């Protein structure tokens, strides 16, 4: 799958999608679980692929500011959400994060990816969005309960929201069992 196909397929399944045109000619696209930043040809490829799906409402070619759509809506409409509220938190994300080869089951179909913070703590993220890690070469986070920033040459390419860990056994103990 091409990058545009992969990204369009992620957002195609979303219950809500929000798109914001930024002043630097790039576009932030979010489904409230993840956010991606696309520029020029990247965005047009995503736009073409997303609009090619029969089951999705077409993204308008020309719009200003922020637009959104809920799964049951028949067209995009203006929205007031400012996606920069999320991207502005990059300054607080001072811990580097390392991807691990480990996953945990959270149910019949759900799996989460384990990421190791430089503080030796572990954070978990929905495996469905693992592809977004390939968009960058550096990962930063504030703490285990804050968004993971995927950076490429110091520029935000994606943001992945964390999954809340609810289990009697700590993540660290589960990992010890995996590698024992």
Structure write-up:
The chain is an alpha+beta fold and 180 residues long. The protein folds into 2 domains: 3-82, no CATH class; 91-179. The chain has helices at 3-12, 40-52, 84-87, 171-179, and strands at 16-21, 26-30, 34-39, 66-70, 77-78, 95-105, 111-117, 122-126, 138-141, 148-152, 155-160. It has an 11-stranded antiparallel beta sheet. Helix 1 packs across helix 2. The longest helix is centred in the first third of the chain and has 13 residues, at 40-52.
Element layout with pairings:
Blueprint lengths: L2 H10 L3 E6 L4 E5 L3 E6 H13 L13 E5 L6 E2 L5 H4 L7 E11 L5 E7 L4 E5 L11 E4 L6 E5 L2 E6 L10 H9 L1
Helix pairs in contact: 1-2
Estimated radius of gyration? 17 Å
> Biggest sheet, in brief?
11 strands, antiparallel
Structural class: alpha+beta
- Percent of sequence in beta strands: 25-35%
Distance between the termini: 36 Å
The string of secondary-structure elements, in order, is: HEEEHEEHEEEEEEH
From the spread of the alpha carbons, the general shape counts as globular
Strand order of the largest sheet: 5-4-1-2-3-11-10-9-6-7-8
Question: What is the number of strand segments?
Answer: 11
Structural domain tally: 2
Count of DSSP-assigned helices: 4
Please give a quick description of this structure.
This protein is α+β, with helices and mostly antiparallel strands.
Keywords:
single chain, about 35% strand, about 20% helix, 4 helices
